[in-house]
Write a structure and sequence with these properties.
single chain; alpha/beta; Rossmann fold; seven-stranded mixed β-sheet; two-stranded antiparallel ribbon
Length: 286
């Protein structure tokens, strides 16, 4: 078992919220969001395995990530949590809600693509076997920086986008590196996708959405490259999302790219509070 870390802004007797980061990110991406939600919720932010201060694994899978999210909410005492998940974290949270239909009361996807196609690979999960040798590592060697400051200066968002609030990125970058004997290195397991077990036994994202029992919403950055209606991929992603969700379940944040909580934190907080208003006013879910 991998050691899983999470941050928490506790509020006794309030409904529980779990914040889930995206690929190559970590819990500290939510440090400027969590406190504002804390006025109405007991908030936790997870470091998924291979990210932040959580342990790395020899292999990863969407089912393992789902178990990690559930374990954190159970440890925090959330009986029926609200899940707010960004990007790849949204993909994993969607899988978790699909596999565990009675786990969460609400799922809010943050600029997270809902794929309509099945990845290539065997459909029978029994055909998928764990590797007998360590997974192939990333081709490029791990970058080592002599100081944290130099490492932070090299930190970049992926995909790239203009910065409206550089101080937020500085805070995130500060917590993205750890000190090793050789210098400062990225905390994230850069081989995570090479170690990822196929999930071809699971339905497509759109198929999951069609059968999902959890109340679900999608928040999109109007300038997000993943939902740009002027590109074929963006138009397809947007079309798939709007077919799966009603108009009132899709919220668009103006002047925000893919990393919308960094671009427009106040609008992001306002949108999240609007989407969770009924849950905040409801009975204690703990």
């Amino acid at each position: 078992d991998a050691r899983i870390q999470y941050r928490r802004w506790p509020k006794p007797h309030a409904p529980g919220v779990l914040l889930v980061h995206g690929h190559a990110a970590h819990a500290r991406w939510w440090d400027h969001i969590g406190p504002s939600l804390h006025h109405q919720f007991d908030v936790s932010a997870i470091d998924l395995s291979g990210a932040g201060d959580s342990a790395h694994r020899t292999t990863y899978s969407s089912r393992l990530f789902a178990e990690e999210m559930m374990a954190v909410t159970h440890h925090a005492g959330y009986a029926s949590p609200i899940i707010i998940a960004h990007s790849f974290g949204g993909t994993l949270a969607r899988v978790a809600c699909y596999l565990n239909p009675h786990w969460a009361q609400q799922l809010i996807l943050m600029d997270s693509v809902i794929p309509s196609r099945q990845p290539a690979g065997p459909r029978n999960s029994k055909e998928v076997k764990a590797p007998t040798k360590p997974a192939r590592q990333t081709q490029r060697p791990e970058r080592v920086y002599p100081t944290r400051l130099i490492a932070m200066k090299r930190f970049r968002l992926t995909p790239r986008q203009p910065l409206t609030h550089p101080h937020i990125l500085t805070h995130i970058a500060h917590h993205s590196f750890r000190e090793s004997e050789a210098g400062f290195v990225f905390k994230f397991d850069r081989a995570v996708f090479n170690k990822m077990m196929p999930a071809s036994d699971l339905p497509t994202g759109s198929e999951m959405m069609a059968s999902l029992q959890t109340k679900t919403s999608l928040v999109i950055g109007r300038k997000s490259v993943f939902f740009d209606p002027e590109t074929p991929v963006g138009e397809r992603n947007l079309s798939t999302a709007t077919k799966q969700l009603a108009n009132h379940e899709v919220k668009i944040i103006d002047d925000a790219g893919h990393h919308l909580m960094i671009d427009q934190p106040l609008s992001t907080i306002e949108t999240l509070l609007t989407l969770t208003a009924g849950s905040a006013e409801g009975p204690d879910q703990r």
